[in-house]
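Troubleshooting log. The previous run stalled partway through. Resubmitting the same two chains, unchanged.
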Amino acid sequence: MEIIISVLEQGLIYAIAALGIYITYKILDFPDLTADGSFTLGAAITSVLLLKNINPLLCIIISAICGFFAGAITGVIHVKFKVRDLLAGIITMMALYSINLRIVGKANITLMQVNSIFDIFNIGSISNIAMLLIITIIIKVIFDLYFKTKSGYLLKAVGNNPNVVISLGRNDGNIKILGLAIGNSLVAISGSLLCQQQGFFEITMGNGVMVMALASVIIGISIFKNIKYVSNTSSVIIGSIIYKACVSIALYIGFEASDVKLITAILFLIVLISSSNKIFEKRERRKT
Amino acid sequence: MIRLERVSKSYNVGTEFETKVFKDFNLSIENNEFVTIIGPNGSGKSTLFNIISGNVDIEEGKIFLKDKNITKEKEYKRYKYIGRVYQNPSVGTCPNMTILENLALVDNKMKKYDLSWCVNKQKIDEYKEKLKVLKLGLENHLNTKVQNLSGGQQQAISLLMATINPIDILILDEHTAALDPKTAEIIMKLTDKIVKEHKITTLMITHNLKYAINYGSRLLVLKQGKIVLDRKGKEKSNTKYEELIDKFDCF
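Second attempt completed without errors. Output:
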């Protein structure tokens, strides 16, 4: 039971990061490594603000805004200074490591004594899941609605074919920056929620978030690709929970906690290989 | 409508591969002219289009559109009044989106891309009417992704998307070259119809000499960055196929 609860909690928290990566990787076609830094950024800002007794909901919003700017910086480095996408993300991620340490002042900090978003209705771990479900669903709905707006369509178009966006008389670079900013604000929200749920902050908590989130995206999308009435956002959220379940099962059958990164890497590889047939098909279609 | 004054453009400046495409190049195109442009590879046809659309910067000279100097204007800004169809049919559309979504996207070109809904259900009938004109049966496939259409169908959609909004100038960059002869014919006739209907000033690059003679109101032959033949009206329609072939091979 405890394992199931922790899988659901963590799965829902990381699902928000996965939605962010869905925007940058799937919609914008941008391998954005900023995520590892902006996840920790969200957590760092939340930790400091919570210790100052700021309302937890406000902490999440401020984290999101900071994540927005982190993503925008990567976007500006890539678009305005023509640095390659992967490197632009790495540069911001590196910078954020030091910035996060500056914000918090030390590498780890405990938040057990402060009121988090999960203390709003305080009835044990089930209420945590209820709270996370509410937050995730709100974000999912806003996400789905946004991609039906004109601004959302432009974002989809820029990942699909930037030429079309230029032909509409719009600056494709600026739209890319906006997409990266939105993606990273979701990742920062995820980081903010994780530090509130586990009750502590550590500087390494964002390591590998990009890979984990991307694994969730690919798992979710490839499982549900043939089922018509499951939206991509729902697929990503469920993918995140499935991913966390896989890791938990691996730990349950006797792997050490220190093996988690290895398990993640292997799991990610399996997911990539099993969905790669689809990737090849896509490439061929593009050629013709 | 559009005027190029003493335009110079070179590639690979400062290296041993330096090539001068244009030097002191002048061109003036009147309102409502439909200009067909032919010329051997490397004659500067595509560069000319890229100069007009702002895709490449020029070293010297000025570009005027409707007497407004647009030399320094960025590419994406120029596309507010330029429509362009490319050789590759998939360049003009978003392949992962449906026909309806593509049309809705381009339908907003003149408005703001804000947080209002992109696809307006009330406009579906209007889109269907526009698709019917293409006579490809696409009006029944509004919810089909563009990547699942044939090259000719995609090119027809590209053409529609480029001309759905009022534009000052339409540039067609060998837009029938990737299609089979029959489809190319359909797209060419469609192009002619749209251009005449909307009275759009048009520039068309083609390698099909028959199209170059039969369509449009003015014919240009470009070679090594120079206009070697420029005919209008009757003089143009009387141009012989053989004559153009001759113009091609004097390297």
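Takeaways: The first helix of chain B runs from residue 45 to 53. Chain B touches chain A at residues 74-80, 83-84, 86, 90-97, 101-102, 104-106, 108-109, 111-119, 147, 161-162 (CB under 8 Å).
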